[in-house]
Specification:
zinc, binds zinc ion, Immunoglobulin-like, Substrate Binding Domain Of Dnak, Chain:A, Domain 2, 10-stranded antiparallel sheet, metal ion binding, single chain, globular, disordered N terminus, alpha+beta, Glyco_hydro/deAcase_b/a-brl, glycosidase
Length: about 1000
């Protein structure tokens, strides 16, 4: 039998080889691009079309054997599966999957944005979708279909390779670059997205041609569009009579030939841009296939006709999945050019259409999405800790998992390319915000429940009459460090009293500082120094004595620090500057503020003894809102019609010198006579800390908004560094990319903007100035030594399309983004900034506890000895520690058997399996010590949680046992050695993690 198949196979190959010379093989891939939330909410979309897509596609595929379909985003599919699909539909889906006629592509919860998403969240949303698909169908996606994200990051191909994908597909890249690639048949290549991982995680990448993912709709014989026989989806309700607007002319005996001619002509045009005779012909577009019947019945006839006249047309057409297409290209066995770690950002569609505005659109949503992500990260690891320590504890595991799942869903959902990008309509932005904030509140409830430990519960029910001081004169907080590193830092608690006494869970006084709040007149900011081991939490007591203590400083009481106010300075009166400089010092820096301008003047790096001139202030771009007078700015697009202008006329300053932090407050007034300031900048300089990562960061928060309409606000940092307008920005917090300034004929300002997710820096030979970020922004270096961050945008324009969909970005919110500024030698910064960015993203979780039922100080160490730290070396980051709660075992064969049994004997949710992900922070060669492969023993590292029983290494999203994972090998024109530094976990649980590796494990504890 084997021999016979081989013979037939050879025969087929020889026929197609002959054929291939003249005949094109066309893969018609039916698909629907379903934005999870863009103009309409998820609920509206489900009702108007999304649900019908899956219902009718499943029915139509079941009807005719040749038909195929690819399903991309999981959110709609999951909603359909859980709420609409009948048992018959479900059975059909399983059947179609088995036949390879329905194929899940990407498999993430959404098609995530690539510019402004953090790597952790991109992985989360992929894991979320993959977990569902694998659990439900035993299916593991092999291909990506990133057709709509606005530009392409070099991190994405790495993630897809790590998830086990065989090929990647992108579409939106810069127009002139795509043009060039088309002409030179270079749309396909092998992408080595990470310079450190190189060949081990490279992936074949297909760039869609100029027609992108929608079917070309122009018909020479009709004034209606073509190939969209079901028309355009209607909102809010589908039409009762089934007649939708813009339905294409039906395929009849009159239109058949012209339809065929049009399609073949398009196929032939596109074939010229590729090296093989295979043509990928996406059939579909946004919100298509809600009436799959009318779609397929027309297309069936058309395709049959073309195939019948295949010889004269020179093409054969077939319905295909993406696998069919990639398999054919792979079998061509050509050698492909290699692309390194360059990305495809920024993205422009035309000379004046630079899609760099969305890096900064909807700052609030971008901030909340990242806060939600970091809360989830904390809650997941705490739940692991809780489950291991109290397997039968009072926090019900299903209840806890539901809360975690809701937050996983919300954080995944907002990663959509019209979610976190800020390119959605206001009501959809509200939807994302609601889902995030509700599930965050719910997870905070879970945290509170987990901290209320069994012994506390027992006492709270038995002893309700404790002699507590009045509760508002006492505040109890728990502080959790979600990082697997020991940290010393300060936290900020908002309080109502000007005096406070802080003690830790050993009853010892803790250094603290109190001062009038920068934000609210009625409140005080209390800064508390916390020392926490990795994944450790501690309890702190804050008391508010009503009288001053007689014993002076020995009683540990801190009272409100003095605010020194400086005279407001008007820009018009600036003459000579730099004569009256006021120092603010800490162990790492000397900052000088200029009393003649009230602006920062310079920072001296005390380690390197190098002084760098630095000025920081706010500038604004004036956007054009009238399409008739020039290019506009909107949700997506940033068009700098003019250079930015200074956004203020005068500056006020206050300094609060302190023992923990010195705070500098600057207020910027639009007009000299204004009573209220337009922008504010609060800089906190940590004092008295030797830890360089703390001492070397200047914590800045900015207040702005509501902006005036059609203003785009930037924070500009102007320095004496000779960077030649070169800036380094990150791809999703994973890797840094060098961006040299490019001069264009038009639109140079906008086209030199890049996304900044966690970090951007400029440098010269001696110094590097880095900005670390807790949410995404746009960033550029437009002048020597300059770095500007776009923090907020408020726009309105009269373009019909924008108005019709309410996509003008009239965002009147007040925003308070935070950046940490760090200055040092390039080498020192390289060792600190990656870790620093994670310190910022995962600041300690501070949780107030309501009413403690008994005094807890002195008598005992509150759960102290059992909360052992979990500590990794400084170059390794504990990226994720979670109990996914999936219903499948670690054996693939067993899992498929269980599924085939139709749910009988199906495993329960596994509450004992822990998913651990560790990532190496450094690039090869980045640091002489830290950028080396690092060996850890997982049993030793994890002993703070419990005793490790078994460890199994998995693919990125957990679905593959790493030893079973074999990806397609693609030949390249480059002869590179396979310098794989991959080593498996040893039997004694040791593992060596090399630069930029991301390793995922299933761990069971005893
Ligand atoms: Zn889209």
């Amino acid at each position: 039998m084997k021999g016979l198949f081989l013979f037939l196979g050879l025969l087929c190959v020889s026929v197609s080889r002959n054929d291939a010379q003249e005949r094109l093989q066309v893969f018609v891939i039916p698909h629907s691009h379903m934005d999870v939330g863009w103009v309409y909410t998820v609920q509206e979309s489900m009702h108007a079309y999304a649900s019908n897509v899956y219902t009718t596609v499943v029915e139509e595929l079941s009807r005719v054997k040749d038909r195929k379909f690819i399903a991309v985003e999981q959110e709609f599919f999951r909603l359909w599966w859980d709420t609409t699909a009948s048992q018959w539909h479900k059975k059909q889906v399983r059947q179609l999957l088995q036949e390879g006629r329905l194929e899940f592509i990407i498999g993430g919860q959404v098609m995530h944005d690539e510019a402004v998403t953090d790597i952790d969240d991109a992985i989360l949303q992929l894991t979320e979708g993959h977990g569902f698909l694998y659990e439900t169908f035993g299916v593991r996606p092999h291909f990506s279909w990133h057709v709509d994200p606005f530009g392409a990051s070099a991190t994405t191909p790495v993630l897809f390779a790590l998830a086990g994908f065989d090929a990647h597909l992108i579409s939106r890249i810069d127009y002139d670059l795509k043009d060039d690639m088309q002409k030179n048949k270079k749309l396909q290549f092998v992408w080595r997205g990470s310079s450190s991982l190189g060949r081990t995680q490279d992936i074949f990448t297909h760039t869609m041609d100029q027609y992108s993912y929608c079917t070309p709709s122009y018909l020479p014989f009709s004034n209606r569009s073509g190939f969209y026989w079901n028309g355009v989806a209607m909102f809010p309700d589908p039409p009762k009579d089934g007649v939708y607007p813009n339905m294409s002319l039906p395929v009849t005996k009159d239109t058949l030939e012209p339809y065929a001619q049009t399609m073949v002509k398009n196929i032939k045009q596109r074939a010229q841009w590729f090296q093989t005779n295979h043509v990928l012909w996406p059939w579909g577009c946004d919100k298509q296939f809600y009436n799959a019947s009318v779609q397929f019945t027309n297309m069936d006839v058309l395709m049959n006709y073309i195939n019948k006249h295949s010889e004269e047309f020179g093409v054969t057409v077939q319905y295909a999945t993406l696998k069919d297409y990639f398999q054919a290209v792979h079998q061509s066995n050509l050698s492909w050019e290699v692309r390194g770690s360059q990305d495809f950002l920024p993205y422009s569609t035309e000379p004046f259409q630079a899609w760099t505005g969305f890096y900064a659109s909807r700052n609030v949503l971008k901030g909340v999405a990242r806060r939600a992500s970091s809360l989830l990260h904390s809650a997941e690891s705490l739940f692991v800790r809780y489950r291991i320590r109290y397997p039968d504890g009072p926090v019900q595991k299903e209840w806890a998992l539901d809360k975690l799942k809701a937050l996983r869903w919300a954080v995944s959902e907002v990663q959509h390319h019209d979610g976190i990008t800020g390119t959605e309509s206001p009501k959809v932005a509200d939807m994302y915000m609601d889902h995030l904030t509700q599930s965050m509140m719910s997870v905070e409830e879970l945290l509170a429940a987990m901290f209320l430990l069994p012994q506390d519960l027992a006492i709270s029910s038995a002893n309700t009459e404790s002699k507590e001081p009045s509760s508002d004169l006492e505040q109890h907080i728990i502080v959790y460090n979600p990082l697997a590193w020991n940290i010393t830092t300060y936290i900020n608690v908002s309080v109502k009293y000007p005096m406070a006494l802080v003690s830790d869970d050993n009853g010892l006084a803790v250094p603290a500082q109190i001062q009038p709040s920068a934000e609210s007149v009625a409140d005080y900011d209390l800064f508390i120094v916390v020392e926490l081991g990795g994944l450790q939490y501690r309890k702190y007591l804050i008391q508010f004595p009503q009288s001053k203590c007689n014993k002076g400083s020995s009683c540990g009481l801190t009272h409100a620090a003095r605010v020194v106010t400086f005279e407001t300075r008007n820009v018009s009166k600036w003459k000579k500057t730099g004569r009256r400089l006021l120092p603010v010092l800490n162990e790492c820096y000397k900052l000088l503020f200029d009393q003649e301008t009230n602006l920062l003047h310079s920072i001296t790096d005390r380690f390197e003894k190098r002084k760098v001139r630095i000025r920081q202030d706010f500038w604004e771009y004036e956007a054009n809102g009238d399409v008739h007078t020039g290019p506009i700015s909107d949700n997506y697009i940033f068009t700098a019609n003019e250079l930015a202008v200074l956004a203020y006329k005068s500056v006020a300053m206050q300094i609060i010198p302190g023992k923990i932090i010195s705070e500098v407050r600057q207020y910027f007034y639009r007009e000299e006579s204004d009573k209220n300031y337009t922008y504010s900048m609060i800089t906190r300089v940590p004092v008295g800390f030797k830890d360089r990562i703390l001492c070397q960061r200047l914590d800045q928060s900015y207040g702005m908004g509501p902006l005036v309409v059609n203003k785009e606000a930037v924070l500009r940092t102007t320095t004496s560094l000779s960077n030649n307008r070169t800036i380094y920005t990150d791809n999703n917090g994973y890797q840094m990319l060098k961006r040299e300034y490019k001069q264009y004929i038009n639109n140079s300002v906008s086209r030199n903007y890049y996304p900044m997710v966690r970090e951007a820096y400029i440098e010269d030979d001696s110094s590097r100035l880095a900005l670390l970020s807790e949410r995404a922004h746009g960033v550029a270096s437009l002048g020597q030594g300059q770095m500007e961050v776009m923090l907020h945008r408020r726009l309105w324009n009269n373009q019909e399309w924008n108005l019709g969909y309410n996509l003008t970005l009239n965002d009147s919110s007040v925003v308070q983004p935070v950046l940490w500024m760090m200055l040092g030698s390039p080498a020192a910064m390289a060792t600190l900034s990656q870790q620093g960015a994670l310190y910022l993203q995962h600041r300690p979780v501070v949780l107030p506890i309501d009413k403690p039922q008994r005094p807890w100080i002195v008598r005992e160490r509150w759960d102290g000895p059992t909360v052992q730290p979990v500590v990794l070396p400084p170059n390794l980051h504990l990226q994720y520690l979670s109990i996914p709660g999936w219903c499948y075992g670690p054996s693939h064969v067993q899992h498929l058997q269980n599924l085939n049994l139709g749910g009988e004997g199906k495993p329960e949710k596994d509450f004992d399996r822990v998913l651990l992900r560790i990532t190496h922070l450094f690039e090869e060669g980045e640091d002489p010590v830290l950028a080396k492969p690092t060996t850890i023993n997982l049993k030793e590292v994890m002993q703070g949680l419990g005793e490790v029983k078994t460890v199994q290494e998995r693919s990125l999203t957990g679905t593959w046992d790493i030893s079973d994972l074999q990806r397609w090998n693609w030949r390249t024109t480059e002869n590179t050695e396979n310098s794989s530094s991959f080593t498996h976990v040893t039997t004694d649980f040791s593992v060596t993690i090399s630069p930029k590796q991301i390793r995922t494990f299933f761990i069971y504890f005893k």
